[in-house]
Structures are given as C-alpha cells and as structure tokens.
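Fold it.
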Amino acid sequence: MNSRRDAEFTEFVAVRLPALRRVAFLLCQDWHQADDLVQVAITRLYANWRRAAVMDHTEAYVRTILVRTYLSERRSGWAKRVASMGAALPEVVAPGPDPDVLLDLKAALTGLPLRQRATIVLRFYCDMSVDQTAEILGCTPGTVKSQTSKALDALRRVLEQPEPIASADVAGRQHRPPEVRSHG
C-alpha cells in the first residue's frame, strides 16, 4: 500500500514540480529560495498525501501550502536571520522573449509588499479567481480585490516610464536624448 502511495505522490510531484518552482520564484524572486520553498511544500504535501490525493484539486492544495509557507517565513524573523547567497551564485535564466522586460517585471514584483506580490502571482500567473485567492491567503475577497488594485497601480507606476523631453541649446536647436526602448 505504501509503495503505491509513494508512486502516486512521486508521479504527481514530477509532473507539477516545474510549475511549483515558477510560482515559488515569482513569490520570492530567488531560485535557491524557491527550491527551498517547494521542498517544504512537497514535504508537507507528502505528510498529508492520503487526504490530498483524493481531493478534486490537489494542485491547488499544494499551491496553498506553498504560498502560506512563503508568507509565514517572511513574517517570521527567519528571512532576516538567514542571509541569502543568491547574489554570489549565478541565477538560472529561463528563456524569455525579452530579457529587459523580464528584468523590469522582476524588479517591479520585488518592490511590492509580500501580500500584494502573492495576490498578483495567484490571480494572474496561477489564473485563480478572487475567491480562490482569498481562500489561499486566508482573507476576504474584498481584501484580494483591494490588494490586486494597489499592486497593479504600483506595477504600472514602476513599469511606465515617461517620454524623454527635448531640450533646446543656446542657439535654439532641439536636442533629444537618445531613444530608449519601451518595455510596455
């Protein structure tokens, strides 16, 4: 019986591991911390596998574990006590359409408060409804809506760059700053 249970669990994790890693990375912005977060989540999932395996939405259950673990670790002093070596180690770079856009988006997400970041990741990356997000975060749907609105406003402010203004020199000629590619 245990070998069948272990085989089911292993198959489930093998199929969903890349998606769980991406969600964890979007939350914490560091691949090493994301791997740690996923490890904690799948360990807790394994401890409750009998109950989780019969659920209709096992993936949602493990995603809930993942997000709650992330928020719990950030609220505790653990995140402040443990120094990340992420800056000293090379990051795994996922192929993307435009690296500049990804860097801008990563920086913008990093600037959001933890709950707003979690809300954005769940709503738009995981494509969850307001009610599903509220259930995972342990708050009301109204809180999810307000956190989403505030986070989107903050992201827009960071990602939208004003157009450069032309200046005139002493002779009246117009000088334009070099054009910068828009990422929006």
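The chain has two domains: 1-82, 97-160.
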